[in-house]
Amino acid sequence: MTREVINSVGIDVGTSTTELVFSRLTIENLAGPASVPRISITEKQIAYRSAVHTTPLLRPDLIDAAALRRIVLAEYTRAGIRPDQVRTGAAIITGETARAVNADQVLAALSELAGDFVVATAGPELESVLAARGAGIDRYSEHSGGVIANLDIGGGTTNIAAYRRGRLLGTCCLDIGGRLVRIAPSGSGNPAVGLVTTPIAELARANGIQLSAGEDADPGKLLAVARLMARQLAMALRLVPQDDCHARLYTNTGHRLPASIVPTEISFSGGVADLIRPGPVADPFRYGDLGVLLGQAIAEDSAFARLDWHRGAETIGATVVGAGVHTTEISGSTIEYAAALLPLRNVPIIRIPPDAETEPAKLASEISSQLAILHPESAAATVAIAFSGRHATTFARVQAYARAIAQAAEPVLAGPNPLIIVLEKDCGKVLGQSLAALRGRRDDVVCIDGVQTTSGDYIDIGQPVGAGRAVPVVLKTLVFNDQHRNNRRSDEAQYQPEWGDVPVP
């Protein structure tokens, strides 16, 4: 039996805190000696968990890249792991920090620092999934009868993911978090409101509460604001009717959970999760923000009281555990690839709808159409064409699909980038070899299987594992908050993080 152990890292740079987790993934061939190899991740073990660091900022919209670099390098040293020993994982910037002026640049630098094949991403869709998986909610739901929603409440955002019987039903993200109102000492020594973000100020104003920076921090008034925030979370789960303010609190595209999702259970992760308890509160501002009061408001909200509560395996560390332990999947074992093409990062996926893959001609037409939509100026750009492959049931049928793909993807094949095919069914090797035979070459096609995708995903494909029989795969949504991105300062393009040379710990 082939057995291989690889190192994985998770780096989470959040609104309030930064954490690292190193884990070991055990990969084995579970098939018999005379059978087709079946490569699986058989064990995931956390090897090192960092301290929880305050995310270093030069100003609210600018990450201190040099200080962040020192934090990451120091934790590598404490873990006794060098960047070149890390095979996979994820570096993710979350919450308000994902909207920083230099978030893109810092994320790219983190990826280079963290290892050979480490995903660099930001976006609430992936963050919601990582937090739920890090808290173990996906696994818990496999044995739970109803729908469970995990709310990952951090400093800047709340990421929600809903599951039923192990299946992800939907995600959403709201501008609700503990540090959206910050408290600081005033000249008189009494606490004062130091910062109020626009979404929370508008929410308060719509409900008859005027809240602004510089005023005394009134615990009663701020608890009332926290209760408004908690009630908005209940609205996101449709536990209570949604008001006129609700739509403005969603980040990114503003999509909500599908109306068909009706949670019967709830779980909480993120920094605020450890603060969810009913009052009275001795020191409501001990963290310099609204986190304690938000936790109290959630605990006392009647809408949440109607659900069954489940405590996940992780709270504040859920996202970083998800990033370090649960991002990576293994492809199927019947795959075809040119090793020189790997690793591949941040490849957009063209997902072919099921009704368009019933016939080779329909498949070719859909590929041509989507290539033109995705890259209207240059269809030769790197893309991954994804479909189920369930209709490729005979060798003759596979060959017909290969001819259709080669015809439709000719702009890609004629350019400098490889053609990447991602299948659900185990026919990747025969389809890849058929494409190679049509081309008369094997160095420009990657065809993998055993991977389920959705529209809007990006895919990363790592170096082969399991004696070359499989490859590590990470699916993600590589999206920053476009609304806030458009409002960034004009110095974004000029800012370059000062990472310098990366020393080996």
Description:
- It is globular and about 80 Å long.
- The protein has helices spanning 65-79, 103-114, 124-134, 137-141, 198-206, 219-236, 291-300, 302-305, 318-325, 360-374, 395-408, 410-413, 428-439, 482-485, and strands at 3-13, 17-29, 39-49, 53-54, 57-59, 62-63, 86-93, 119-122, 148-153, 158-164, 167-174, 181-185, 191-196, 265-269, 308-309, 329-330, 344-351, 384-387, 419-423, 445-448, 458-461, 472-476.
- It has three domains: 3-122 and 322-327 and 481-492, ATPase, nucleotide binding domain (Nucleotidyltransferase, domain 5), CATH 3.30.420; 136-312, Nucleotidyltransferase, domain 5 (2-Layer Sandwich); 334-450, no CATH class.
- A seven-stranded mixed β-sheet has the order 16-22-21-17-18-19-20, covered by helices on one side. Strands 1, 2, 3, 4, 7 and 8 form a six-stranded mixed β-sheet that branches. Strands 11-10-9-14-15 form a five-stranded mixed β-sheet.
- It contains 14 helices and 22 strands.
- Helix 3 (124-134) crosses helix 9 (318-325).
- With 505 residues, it is of the alpha/beta class.
- The protein starts with a strand and ends in a 20-residue tail after the last helix.
